[in-house]
Amino acid sequence: MKQLTGPDAMFLHMELKGFPMHIGGVSIYDQSTSPGGLVRFKDILAMFASRLDRSPIFRRRLAEVPFNLDQPYWVDDPDFDLEFHVRHIALPKPGDWRQLCIQVARLHARPLDRNRPLWEAYIIEGLNDLEGVPPGSFALYLKVHHAAIDGASGVQFFGAFNDISPEPEPAPPPAPWQPEAPPGKGKLLFKAYTNNLRKPGQVLRMGRDLLSSRQRVKQGLSRGEFSELGEIPRTRFNAKMTPHRVLGATKFDFEAIRKIKNSVEGATINDVMLAIVSGALRKYLDQKGELPQRTLVTGCPVNVRDENERDKEGNLVGMMTTALCTDVDDPLQRLREIHEQALNAKAYMQAQGSRMMVDFSETLPAGMQALLIQAAAMTGLAEKNLMMNTMITNVPGAPFQLYMCGAQLIDSFGIGPLAPGMGLFHTVNSMVMKNKGAITLAFICCREVMPDPEFYSQCIEESFAELQPVSTQRKKKTTRKKSSRDGS
């Protein structure tokens, strides 16, 4: 039995009708590399069964505390059924990219069953008409509740199914699993009583931290060390949404992204991906006649684990908000300003306290946390008081080629959750495919807000294409300078 932390439980309380709070991932595999060139569903089931002991997430479910007096607990599920969680489906013919996106969007829109362990996996066959994907390939769509993992800890969970060789290393058979008896209501209420006795002291410490944070921010602003974002413009992505979803994903060559990064001194890969999203949003909203004069703002989840928390489960995430500079027309200038704004946002977050969100959710009593989130949703507070226009999270993948049951991983992308007032979520994934680096930018949105995801994907591709000449021009200028020096 293990109690959820405040940040973990926050994602349970945030789960409202039409807004499931799970994160997901799609991985596409070429089964021609597997022994015999074929991976059967029973092989995948056997692989899952042999690796259930690699993470406690697989076989534990929620136990709610009566009257919501304390955060829930993770307990063993004595009725765990692997075949309920691992399912087998197929796309209709011709099995193209659009059909895969529609199918995954539908699956991602469905909430997980809270009476069972909070994860599901779908093996999707029939991928016979995807560009660059060998016919007969299959996909794994995996979704896990955000209460169980964040992006950083999720990499380890998703990695439980993959090997670094087509021939998996032999592993000893897992030890027989004996679930612990679930706790009674009396035990949960007693623990809630003892935990809540500590709350007054936690609230006082949190109050002192908030005062210190406010003072640091005030001093930083007065010294000009950073600035505030100001008013955030309202877009179609921040209106009321339906439960229906659309998604898309675009893959880029890592070297091409790196060359763009090198075109601006000090810029990072993250800056380039922000610039690609910025350009895409400009194009999409401009075509709709809805491009605001003020810049759009994105939220960027930040892993706040220290060295001693690298392998810690659950959520340890802060939030950085930064301007996307969508009010800048020139792509190179936009990248420069995005880099400067990212530095500004990091300095602001540092002064505020990178773990402030984690500490606040740990301090707030469970019942109050749930009540505040539900009240904000019912009153439309999230839509009225914007904190961001979209979300962009960066989840690094394994820096080497991966396989599942001998099938080679040839594509992969992540999918995040939507929330009231925030109807567009981007996920950036880096990976190695066929010994070559790649970065995938995926997005998920409300279907009524974005009825044309293919057009938004086109905007992403055009935004990337605009930045490519930038890196080429810089390379030419560098070469000319070098030639001049050599000739002098």
Describe the structure using short key phrases.
488 residues, alpha+beta, Chloramphenicol Acetyltransferase, 2 domains, six-stranded mixed sheet, 14 helices, 15 strands, 39% helix
Outline the low-pLDDT stretches. 475-488
Summed up, the helix count is 14
Q: What is the ordering of alpha helices and beta strands?
A: EHEHEEHEHEEHHHEHHEEHHHHEEEEEH
Q: Which word captures the global form?
A: globular
Strands, count: 15
Which CATH top level class of the largest domain fits? Alpha Beta
What would the CATH topology of the largest domain be? Chloramphenicol Acetyltransferase
The radius of gyration computed from the alpha-carbon positions, rounded to a whole number of angstroms, is: 24 Å
The share of residues in extended strands comes to 15-25%
User: Strands across the major sheet, in which order?
Assistant: 5-6-7-2-13-12
How many domains would you count in the coordinates?
2
Largest sheet: 6 strands, mixed
Q: What is the CA–CA distance across the termini? A: 74 Å
- Approximate helicity band: 25-40%
CATH architecture of the largest domain: 2-Layer Sandwich
Structural class: alpha+beta
Mean pLDDT: 88
